[in-house]
Amino acid sequence: MKTKVWKLVAVFVALLAVVGAYMIFFAAPQTVASLVLQVNPAITLTLSERNTVIGAEGLDAQGESLLARLDVAGKQTPEALRAIMEALHETGLLADGRRVLIALHPVGARLEEAKLTALTETMNQALATYVAEHALPVDVVSVTLTPELAAAVYAAGLLPDDYADLVAEVGSPTALQVLNLQKEQGLDPVLFKEEFSTIAAALIDMKEAGIAEGDALAILQRALMADPKLEELTTITAAIIDLHETGATQKDIMSVFTLLEEQVVAGMERTLLLEEFSTITAAKADLLDAGVPASVALDVLRTAITADPKLEELTTITAAMVDLVEKGLSKDEAQARIQAAIKADPTLQNFDDLIEAAKDEAQDTDKPEGEAPREGPVQPDPDEPEGEGGGN
């Protein structure tokens, strides 16, 4: 009896060993990472802990068509990427000027940092090798997203073409802050998605112009607040970069947005102010370049906008301030002359004449003593010898 029991136990243990081996080697693999590849088609590959493809999905019609001709399931990631690149090459989608965009992100917490790094390097090497072998005139841009950023871009409906350059330039944490601006500013999500590449380019351009990343992000936030329809964002960015390159501080830059909002509250059309944003910033740059203190320059701009709400003579008024300062008037005196000219002629039709008179007055004031014509008879020079006929 005991012999039979021990035989049953032995069989049971052997069965457990077989089941355990089966579970180890044949259990369904777990997803550890997701990879999105975009050229013109866009596809996503789901990767296992064994670095194999366990799922593939087209993210657009072209992506679905591409995968319909390929069988990448069960392939190692480099092999699957090579097969996809081959299919793209054969259909002429790796032509000059195209970019291969790759976004990789971990799924869950099963992929250690070292393994994620290794997977990224393996993926990049496979793509670089194929491109080099075929001398393809394409660029490969590869980025790794944090799970939080991946969730945000998927929720926003973005593809690598929208965000890859941004992540490559500023990293996932800052890119996530940019994405969060949509909810923070209450921007239309459809419009935000459509213009995200423009928003990303704005931040990249400011950073490349030498504006600190944190300052650039703060400027972008104010720009989106000022232009919620995203119609003038590129113009605003270019104007801010020009202002920065004249030596303006972050405080000087942000004060322009404050001035704009003040004028909107006062009743001016936001559209007009945004259309003339470059004019306003250029005028401030000229004032600062002439040595006008930032606070005074802001007051002059405020005076000019109030006097000319259509902004047709804004440059004329601020240029007058620069000219008066260059003629030698103090900042306070020059500002007083500007205000007096506007008060004397609110229509601004005679503004130039009034300023020219102020310039002439400034020049007369600057003349050294003794230059004015002398009145009365001219006294003889005591050192000059008397001429003929002089004396008795």
Describe this structure in words.
The chain is of the alpha+beta class. It folds into 3 domains: 117 residues; 85 residues, no CATH class; 120 residues, no CATH class. Helices cover 62% and strands 9% of the residues. The protein is built from 17 helices and 5 strands. The chain has a 5-stranded mixed sheet, with helices on both faces. A hairpin with a 4-residue loop joins strand 2 and strand 3. Helix 13 runs parallel beside helix 15. The longest helix has 26 residues. The protein is elongated. The N and C termini lie far apart (171 Å). The C terminus is likely disordered.
Distance between the termini: 171 Å
Q: Give the averaged pLDDT, no decimals.
A: 86
Helix content: 55-70%
Report the strand count: 5
**H-E string:** HEEEHHEHEHHHHHHHHHHHHH
The total of helices stands at 17
- Write down the domain tally: 3
Brief rundown of the structure:
With 392 residues, the chain is α+β, with helices and mostly antiparallel strands. It is built from 17 helices and 5 strands. β2 and β3 form a beta hairpin.
Main attributes?
392 residues, alpha+beta, 3 domains, five-stranded mixed sheet, 62% helix, 9% strand
List the topology elements.
Layout (H helix, E strand, L loop, with lengths): L1 H25 L4 E8 L3 E7 L4 E6 L2 H8 L8 H14 L8 E8 L6 H21 L5 E6 L2 H10 L3 H26 L3 H6 L1 H13 L4 H14 L6 H13 L4 H16 L4 H6 L1 H13 L4 H14 L6 H13 L4 H14 L6 H16 L26
Helix pairs in contact: 3-4, 5-6, 6-8, 6-9, 8-9, 8-10, 9-11, 10-13, 11-14, 13-14, 13-15, 14-15, 14-16, 15-16, 15-17, 16-17
